[in-house]
Design goal:
The protein is mainly alpha-helical. The chain is about 40% helix and about 10% strand. The strands form three sheets. Strands 2-4-3 form a three-stranded antiparallel β-sheet. Strands 1-7 form a two-stranded antiparallel ribbon. Strands 5-6 form a two-stranded antiparallel ribbon.
């Protein structure tokens, strides 16, 4: 056997069981063995489970619908996307801003949703999305946005603990807020495991224990993460107003 092949084989040997069960592509298996620093921090997946709290729909910020999303939402609500009067009624009811193309083709407009009582206009009284099956890319890809996956710190900084969980003085944990946002479905166990404080270990148990009524997180695989991240990036790049993308709306 050639020396370089033997070298790679020996490096991969300790991970044989993991590789067999995870079935990573060969190139990623080799990179993981000889150059792990070249792989994203989410190479082995990320812990996340949506808690259904609806707080991501209450963050201070904009939700922009792409033209095809406008049509899908209108159809879902019983409007006729191709009818001018129907489109105008939808606009008056649900839209607070619009970016129309220079040629005046309304079917190619991007629309920004209104907010009611500090939340997305489509958040129902039970705290659920009333258009969930046709929710925009911005919503369906969260929290796997490029801005939150640029590094491990950015991902962990988006994590938030439920409001009924006490945060000890000096801890880097935080609660959700409209201004700062945050996601309670992101597990921050990895961050706390790197700390040696027994108090933090107890806090970890408080947050993640099923006995406290908190959902246990599951592993979202790398491939799904990448698909959602790319979809969010493509959606954001398509938006036609650079000034808005650089100031008030980013994914």
């Amino acid at each position: 056997m050639r020396p370089e092949i033997l070298f790679v084989a020996l490096l991969l040997a300790p991970d044989c069981h993991a590789l067999a069960t995870r079935k990573k592509p060969l190139l990623r298996r080799i990179r993981s063995a000889i150059a792990p620093f070249s792989l994203p921090f989410y190479e082995d997946g990320l812990r996340f489970s949506c808690t259904g709290c609806g707080k991501c729909c209450k963050v201070d910020g904009d939700v922009w619908l792409a033209p095809e999303e406008v049509a899908s939402v209108m159809d879902r609500l019983g409007y006729c996307p191709g009818d001018a009067a129907s489109r105008e009624e939808f606009r008056r009811t649900y839209v607070r801003a619009e970016v129309a193309p220079s040629d005046g083709d309304a079917s190619l407009s991007w629309m920004c949703l209104k907010r009611e009582e500090g939340a997305c206009i489509f958040l129902d009284p039970l705290g659920k999305c009333s258009i969930y099956d046709v929710r925009p890319v911005q919503c369906s890809t969260y929290p796997f946005w490029p801005s939150l996956l640029r590094n491990k710190d950015a991902w962990e900084e988006e994590s938030a603990v439920p409001d009924d969980v006490a945060i000890e003085k000096g801890s880097d944990m935080r609660h959700w807020s409209p201004e700062m946002g945050g996601c309670e479905g992101i597990s921050i166990g990895g961050r706390r495991e790197s700390e040696n404080s027994s108090d933090n270990e107890n806090a970890k148990a408080d947050v993640e224990s099923p006995e406290d009524g908190v959902l246990e997180s599951t592993i979202v695989e790398r491939d799904e993460i990448v698909l959602k991240m790319r979809a969010a990036r493509k959606h954001w790049k398509r938006f036609p107003v650079q000034e808005i993308k650089e100031s008030t709306w980013y994914l």
